[in-house]
Amino acid sequence: xxxxxxxxxxxxxxxxxxxxxxxxxxxxxxxxxxxxxxxxxxxxxxxxxxxxxxxxxxxxxxxxxxxxxxxxxxxxxxxxxxxxxxxxxxxxxxxxxxxxxxxxxxxxxxxxxxxxxxxxxx
Length: 122
Description:
Elements: H1 6-14, H2 24-35, H3 49-64, H4 69-93, H5 97-121
Helix pairs in contact: 4-5
């Protein structure tokens, strides 16, 4: 989605951290797209055909499925919510009550913003 949104999409892509992703290959895709935002098919990795195929698929999807900025924002917020939920789970597992207290308001703010955007995108 980020590829089809110009500078706004680049801003969101640049904001993705390692803990937004569940695997190293997806982090490598993010890094490639950051480095080749203007031409994602440039310099595809020769050493990893599966990664090259995934990048190619994402690039073609960006051309075929344009999205609005509101949908991009909603998707970003959903990623942030999942990331925050994971952080809350880890804090609970380690009995880190200070982190839990800090993360709960963040989670609720994300949920409110998602609810507001859901009303706008439907």
